[in-house]
Amino acid sequence: MTDRLSVIFAALADPTRRAILARLAEGEATVTELAEPFDISLPAISRHLKVLENAGLISRSRSAQWRSSRLEAGPLREATAWMERYRRFWDENFARLDAHLKRLQEEKP
Amino acid sequence: MTDRLSVIFAALADPTRRAILARLAEGEATVTELAEPFDISLPAISRHLKVLENAGLISRSRSAQWRSSRLEAGPLREATAWMERYRRFWDENFARLDAHLKRLQEEKP
DNA sequence: CGGTCATTTAACCCTCCCGTTAATTAACGG
DNA sequence: CCGTTAATTAACGGGAGGGTTAAATGACCG
Questions:
Q1: How open is the CA angle B36-B78-B70, to the nearest 5 degrees?
Q2: pLDDT tens, position by position, B5-59
Q3: pLDDT digits over A12-63, tens only?
Q4: Where is the HTH arsR-type domain (chains A, B) (predicted)?
Q5: DSSP H helical segments within chain B, as ranges?
Q6: Which residues of chain A have a Cβ shorter than 8 Å from any chain B Cβ?
Q7: Who is most buried in A5, A44, A61, B70, counting CB within 10 A?
Q8: Is the CB atom of residue B54 positioned under 7 angstroms from any atom of strand C?
Q9: Cβ of residue B43 near strand C, that is under 7 Å?
């Protein structure tokens, strides 16, 4: 699980972390501010932040004793870029057309 | 980790599973066909398929002793829909503009 | 300097994930 | 039937993930 995309998806696979990202979309925040809505300990939040930072989804800056986190959406762009390859499968119409074309192609030879 | 989105992202967080999806984009395939490119045992593949099925990313049909898998991209649409909320952060220009507007707003009052 | 606040690290659980091999189920074909 | 092929289930092990509490770090402040 050492590849970049896996790390990104794994980071997103936790509701707490996604909620943290949602919060950061409204602006930077410190660890305690981020922890406030959740019913889990501060060390747990601290680790979630480390996971997000590791995935490149946030960056962190320290000023005095506060460390504020900042949303970095670049990895999300990478993730959607990967999914983009499958976009044609989302469209029912395309799927039906595609199946139809495949059937034709198999009947030909 | 019971929510739908988490299950989807978790399923995508494995390179083998993403490779299986890529293979299925070219058409249905049986378990042994899907296992062929990988250096892992058949039971392992079988479980990966169960994870993908659980996430709704594939559907399966049985004909005789073969069980073929079929790509279902619906969940990918859901996942990108979630990420879509952050699209504005991908664009550097927007980010700079956004920061600028925020600065203005803070200077006002 | 001593206290206090913000955050991280350490140490420890427990559960889930990914892999293995061995055994089991299911269906076909002589 | 029996053997073969396809796939899953069972049982196990190692390691990662998410949580906890207690202790350590770092920076402000009186």
A1: 30
A2: 999 999 999 999 999 999 999 999 999 999 999 999 999 999 999 999 999 999 9
A3: 999 999 999 999 999 999 999 999 999 999 999 999 999 999 999 999 998 8
A4: 1-91
A5: 4-12, 15-24, 31-35, 42-54, 74-84, 87-90, 92-107
A6: 1, 3, 5-6, 9-10, 12-15, 18, 21-22, 25, 27, 71-74, 76-77, 79-80, 82-83, 85-87, 89-90, 102
A7: A5
A8: no
A9: yes
